[in-house]
C-alpha cells in the first residue's frame, strides 16, 4: 500500500490536459529519454535540461522506433519520404555497428 500523502517527499500533484497528438509526442520523447515520466515532467516543467541516458536499453528502444519508421516509409512516394527512408536506413546501420552491448538485438 502507498504511503500517506504527508509522508511523501513530493506530496503535490499537478495535472494538465493534452490532445491525443500532443500526448503521443510527449510519450515518444519520454521513451527516447530513458527516464521515468515523473522525472521527465519535472525537468521539462522546471526548465531543466532533459538528457538522453545512453546504453543498451536505449539503443534497443531507439532501434525499434527506427524499424517502425522504416516499415512505414517502405512505400515512400515523395522525395522527402525517400530521403527520410535513406536516413533511417543509415541510422539503423550505425546502430547495428555499435559497440558490443548492442550486438545481439538483430539476431
Task: Provide an overview of this structure.
The structure is a single chain. The protein has helices spanning 20-33, 37-45, 56-73, 79-96. The protein contains four helices and no strands. It folds into two domains: 16-53, no CATH class; 56-106. α3 (56-73) packs antiparallel against α4 (79-96). The termini are far apart. The radius of gyration is 18 Å and the shape is elongated. By secondary structure, the chain is an all-alpha fold.
Shape: elongated
Oligomer kind? single chain
User: How much is the radius of gyration in Å?
Assistant: 18 Å
Q: In terms of per-residue confidence, which ranges show pLDDT below 50 for 5 or more consecutive residues?
A: 102-107
Number of strands: 0
Report strand %: under 5%
Overall pLDDT metric: 75
Structural class: mainly alpha
- Count of spatially separate domains: 2
| Structure annotation, total helices | 4
Encode the helix/strand succession as letters. Answer: HHHH
In percent, how helical is the residue content?
55-70%
InterPro entries: NikA-like
Protein name: Mobilization protein
Pfam family, one: NikA-like
Amino acid at each position: 500500500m502507498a504511503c500517506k500523502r504527508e509522508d511523501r517527499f513530493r506530496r503535490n500533484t499537478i495535472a494538465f490536459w493534452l490532445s491525443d497528438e500532443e500526448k503521443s509526442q510527449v510519450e515518444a520523447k519520454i521513451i527516447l529519454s530513458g527516464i521515468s515520466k515523473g522525472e521527465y515532467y519535472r525537468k521539462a516543467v522546471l526548465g531543466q535540461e532533459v538528457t538522453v541516458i545512453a546504453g543498451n536499453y536505449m539503443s534497443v528502444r531507439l532501434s525499434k522506433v527506427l524499424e517502425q519508421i522504416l516499415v512505414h516509409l517502405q512505400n515512400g512516394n515523395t522525395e522527402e519520404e525517400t530521403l527520410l527512408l535513406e536516413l533511417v536506413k543509415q541510422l539503423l546501420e550505425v546502430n547495428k555497428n555499435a559497440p558490443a552491448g548492442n550486438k545481439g538485438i538483430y539476431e
